Recover the amino acids of this structure.
């Protein structure tokens, strides 16, 4: 009995709690830090694998490419010009987006993707036709989904207007609901979708409004996913942001003018 | 407490199964059993966490003040789950992506805390580890069974090896898409519980309420 009483005094409780917390914290930190490089390598391998998936999808429409035939470039998003000062292979876009020196705050009214900041530079891949004109543009896009950040490759035709593919390579959406954005059936909807109308106004999006029915924008939109309205809205905002003036628009404008 | 070591290990398999008798851990059982490989990985993770969690709690049980015991147990369990999650992300990246949040949610799996509080606090290290492994295996047994049934009837495959050829590829098998949705796990677990209780009637609970005879009630 006396032992039970001494076991419950406040100091002892505090001591045990602190000791357990310390040991647990040490264990978690050591494991997390030591496994970090392997995890990062996995993510990088995944990104490349997804890029290869995009290439596989493109080979279906007669655009067979290898990863080495892609022209990797860093684009200054504000001007749309190439930045040659950094090697694209060593550029860490996620890290750059989180650092004040290499990123810029997105004005709230333009932040359709819910990102708050974006990197100054973005890594894009170009595929050139035999006459050296741009044939395909492969761009990374990202945005807030329902409960995670969505990351995908957006493939545009060399006309910088027509979507060829949208391929998600990282997300943490609800399995079976929001996670259906990476199902081939859903992704296939993006193929050959025109992102702009004849006046060059950005119209691309995801139809989510239950009562809205088919509007004028129907031909520029894909179907949403039942039960995943927030995810679909995230995809919608992500594309509108990255194709918009604070995203790749200056760069795409240069492509359209044939300056590359 | 007087049980032999072998009994501690085997009793939770059927006689005292955490899923079918105690109805604990249902949430994760619904979520990760769409295919056999995720069910297997989840089973492995839960066995590890249960064994290590119960073992660690048992080791420090005599130094654990009563007032803070639950929070200390949860701290230990949470740390173990984070460690296992990190290991999975490093060495089983593809599968861990498919298990997504459910590895993290093992922290809130009632089985883990239930065994730490209900068994490990009052038993020695070896018995607690065995109890953890036993309960983990009991959970795994149901998970693997449900995962196998759902993958087989939902996709016609087991461990991603196609066994029945679906109609979309020219075969004669029409996949049951319901099997890939969470409600099907409810039906299957319900069916398993029914079968077990037919064989072991002592598991059937006494009804808490009985309907009065309507004839008598109206008079």
């Amino acid at each position: 009995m006396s032992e039970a009483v001494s076991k419950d005094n406040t100091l002892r409780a505090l001591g045990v709690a602190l000791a357990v917390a310390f040991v647990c914290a040490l264990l978690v930190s050591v494991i997390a830090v030591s496994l970090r490089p392997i995890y990062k390598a996995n993510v990088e391998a995944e990104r490349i694998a997804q890029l290869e998936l995009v290439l596989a999808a493109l080979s279906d429409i007669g655009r067979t490419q290898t990863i080495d035939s892609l022209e990797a470039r860093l684009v200054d998003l504000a001007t749309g010009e190439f930045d040659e000062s950094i090697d694209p292979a060593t550029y860490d876009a996620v890290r750059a987006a989180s650092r004040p020196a290499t990123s810029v705050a997105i004005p709230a009214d333009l932040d359709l993707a819910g990102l708050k900041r974006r990197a100054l530079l973005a890594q894009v891949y170009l595929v050139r036709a035999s006459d050296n004109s741009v044939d395909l543009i492969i761009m990374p896009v990202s945005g807030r989904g329902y409960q995670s950040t969505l990351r995908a490759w957006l493939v545009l035709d060399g006309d910088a207007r027509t979507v060829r593919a949208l391929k998600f390579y990282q997300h943490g959406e609800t399995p079976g609901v929001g996670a259906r954005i990476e199902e081939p059936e859903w992704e296939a909807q993006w193929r050959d979708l025109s992102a702009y109308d004849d006046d060059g106004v950005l119209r691309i999006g995801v139809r989510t409004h239950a009562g809205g029915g088919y509007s004028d924008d129907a031909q520029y939109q894909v179907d949403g996913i039942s039960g995943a309205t927030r995810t679909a809205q995230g995809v919608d905002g992500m594309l509108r942001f990255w194709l918009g003036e604070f995203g790749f628009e200056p760069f795409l404008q240069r492509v359209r003018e044939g300056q590359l | 407490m007087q049980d032999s070591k072998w009994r501690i290990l085997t009793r939770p398999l059927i006689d005292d199964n955490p899923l079918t008798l105690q109805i604990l851990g249902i949430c994760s059982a619904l979520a990760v059993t769409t295919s056999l490989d995720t069910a297997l990985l989840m089973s492995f993770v839960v066995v590890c966490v249960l064994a290590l969690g119960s073992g660690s709690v048992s080791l420090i049980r005599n130094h654990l003040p009563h007032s803070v015991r639950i929070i200390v147990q949860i701290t230990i369990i949470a740390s173990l789950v984070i460690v296992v999650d990190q290991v999975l992300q490093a060495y089983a990246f593809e599968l861990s992506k498919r298990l997504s949040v459910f590895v993290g949610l093992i922290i809130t799996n009632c089985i883990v805390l239930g065994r730490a509080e209900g068994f490990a606090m009052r038993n020695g290290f070896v018995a607690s580890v065995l109890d953890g492994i036993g309960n983990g295996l009991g959970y795994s047994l149901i998970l693997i069974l449900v995962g196998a049934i759902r993958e087989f009837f939902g996709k016609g495959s087991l461990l991603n090896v196609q066994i029945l050829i679906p109609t979309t590829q020219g075969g004669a098998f029409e996949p049951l898409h319901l099997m890939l949705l969470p409600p099907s796990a409810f039906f299957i677990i319900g069916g398993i519980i029914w079968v077990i209780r037919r064989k072991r009637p002592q598991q059937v609970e006494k009804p808490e309420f009985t309907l009065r005879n309507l004839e008598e009630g109206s008079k």
About this structure: The two ends of chain B are 52 Å apart (CA to CA). The CA atoms of residues 146 and 188 of chain B lie 7 Å apart.
